[in-house]
Write a structure and sequence with these properties.
With about 325 residues, this protein is mainly alpha-helical. The protein has helices spanning about 1-20, 25-30, 40-70, 75-85, 90-100, 110-120, 125-135, 140-150, 150-175, 180-185, 200-235, 240-245, 255-260, 270-280, 285-295, 300-305, 310-335. The N and C termini lie far apart (about 50 Å).
């Protein structure tokens, strides 16, 4: 049985690699089948979509599969156990780091927020996790690495972690526990023990497959929608138009990008193709990343869900601190790149 699983895994990896390295000639061949000029606006948009759609889905599938295996060791219960009882500072760093390696979007991270409070995890530490989980995740890092290189991915990781860690520390120092909704304050604090399951290699591989079916199965349509928007921008939006209000010369572009991004909602996988298209049309990298981070870390649906847990005053404080961190990231990227 083990040999069969190992053989299937090898075949799947070979197929994945073969498809990935063939994407450019394959996309050009598919575009050539249509009666459109390759250099036309429509031709450019089609080429962008036909190349990026399978590329993003392939990267997403690989990352979700690997993280699905890794997450057999990092369940929500174990995550809570790791964070409870840690000293401040170290706990914030650990919480932010766990936020990076756990595949929770801004909305699905909120139930864990409640679980952390219930487990006795300090409020500032829970905010470090809540900020990092959607904003700096393995999907965003992988796609940034694939599209823009390791320097951009590493700088994004470092700055994103700093926003999560420092944001959590600041929120923790403010003593805002009294601004939790009363029903959350009344939750009896419980210590959760984690009874690690003895999973086999086959079980962990199966967990990876289930993770792919669950995550990719839910977000693929949003990814295609995001790539469609990116394709339209890439093919039809004039370069000077984007550069005029998202370029480095426009100092107000970063705040505007954050303001525009907050009411929107998308996963990192869905918004990164849009960021790629914006950059190709003259947008500054810091401005585009500030837009992406505001979409995934301060989405309107997340804030609506948080309203069930936090008072309006605490939500405003949380948004203000995170938005300030995102603005800082945007300005730093624009300065150094």
């Amino acid at each position: 049985m083990f040999k069969d699983i190992r053989f299937q895994l090898i075949i799947a990896v070979l197929l994945w690699v073969g498809t990935y390295v063939s994407l450019i000639p394959l996309s050009e061949w598919v575009v050539s089948l249509f009666p459109v000029e390759r250099e036309s606006h429509l031709g450019e948009a089609m080429a962008f979509f036909i190349y990026d759609a399978p590329k993003v889905l392939l990267l997403l599938t690989a990352v979700v599969f690997v993280m699905g295996i890794i997450n057999t060791w990092f369940t929500p219960e174990r995550t809570r156990t790791l964070l409870a009882g840690r000293s401040l500072g170290l706990a914030n760093i650990l919480a932010a780091s766990l936020g990076v390696v756990t595949p929770f979007c801004s909305c699905s991270a909120v139930p864990l927020f409640i679980g952390f409070v219930q487990a006795g995890v300090p409020l500032g530490v829970t905010f470090s996790f809540l900020i990092a989980a959607p904003m700096v995740n393995e999907i965003a890092l992988t796609l940034l690495f694939g599209l823009f290189g390791w320097k951009v991915a590493l700088l994004y990781l470092v700055l994103g972690l700093l926003v999560a860690i420092l944001g959590g520390l600041v929120l923790g120092k403010l003593g805002l526990e009294k601004y939790l909704e009363q029903w959350v304050q009344d939750i009896e604090k419980k210590q959760h023990s984690f009874d690690a399951e003895q999973l086999t290699f086959s079980d962990r591989l199966q967990a990876g497959v289930v993770s792919v079916k669950d995550v990719v199965g839910k977000v693929w349509i949003y990814i295609l929608l995001g790539i469609s928007v990116g394709a339209f921008i890439h093919g039809f939006v004039p370069e000077n138009f984007m550069a005029s209000f998202m370029g480095k010369s426009a100092w107000w572009s970063v705040p505007l990008a954050v303001i525009i991004g907050v009411p929107m909602y998308s996963s990192a996988a869905g918004i990164i193709p849009v960021v790629q298209a914006l950059l190709a049309k003259g947008a500054a990298l810091g401005t585009a990343l500030a837009f992406m981070m505001s979409v995934v870390a301060l989405s309107l649906p997340e804030l609506i869900i948080l309203r069930k847990v936090l008072t309006l005053r605490l939500i405003i404080t949380f948004v203000s601190i995170v938005a300030s961190g995102i603005l800082l990231v945007g300005f730093i990227f624009n300065l150094v790149l």
